[in-house]
Write a structure and sequence with these properties.
The protein is mainly α and 153 residues long. The protein contains nine helices and no strands. The radius of gyration is 17 Å and the shape is globular.
Length: 153
């Protein structure tokens, strides 16, 4: 398994998925083209059938970097944002890193997007990502609606 496949699968969660939300926050309209680029790359890679899936060296590097980022960010678990941040730190010849760069995603804008989405929350459980932006996902901003004339008198 390679990093490009992992991020591609995480992007399949769609617009509501954390990886897509981070990409879109970092650079608007980047998640779709990133998913398409990864899909094209994955179609071009030879397939191996009949064996147990194994992790390649790039995947191991991604996981090590994600673990380092987890410690740096003082989190107790590796979260999806750690994986995406680790992806932009892969070697420049990695297909995932190239795809991220081609759609305008880099360490700086992804880190800013993660901070915006996450706020000051720490990853303290296996489901911490579900609490990010909870208010905006599950509630209606009445002040904003009133400013746009969307409330009935």
């Amino acid at each position: 398994m390679e990093p490009a496949l992992l991020i591609h699968l995480l992007l399949l969660d769609g617009k509501g998925g954390l990886i897509s939300r981070i990409c879109e926050s970092a650079k608007p309209n980047s998640a779709g083209p990133l998913q398409e680029a990864l899909e094209q790359y994955l179609k071009s890679v030879p397939k191996v059938h009949g064996t147990q899936p194994t992790m390649g060296q790039n995947m191991l590097a991604l996981l090590r970097t994600a673990s380092d980022l987890r410690r740096e960010m003082q989190d107790s678990h590796i979260a999806l944002e750690h994986l995406l941040l680790a992806a932009v730190q892969l070697s420049s010849n990695d297909p995932l890193k190239k795809a991220l760069n081609n759609v305008g995603l880099d360490n700086k804008n992804i880190k800013e997007a993660v901070n915006k989405i996450r706020g000051n929350k720490k990853v303290t459980s296996r489901s911490s990502e579900g609490t990010y932006e909870a208010l905006s996902k599950y509630a209606r901003d009445l002040t904003k609606a009133a400013e746009h004339g969307e409330l009935a008198p």
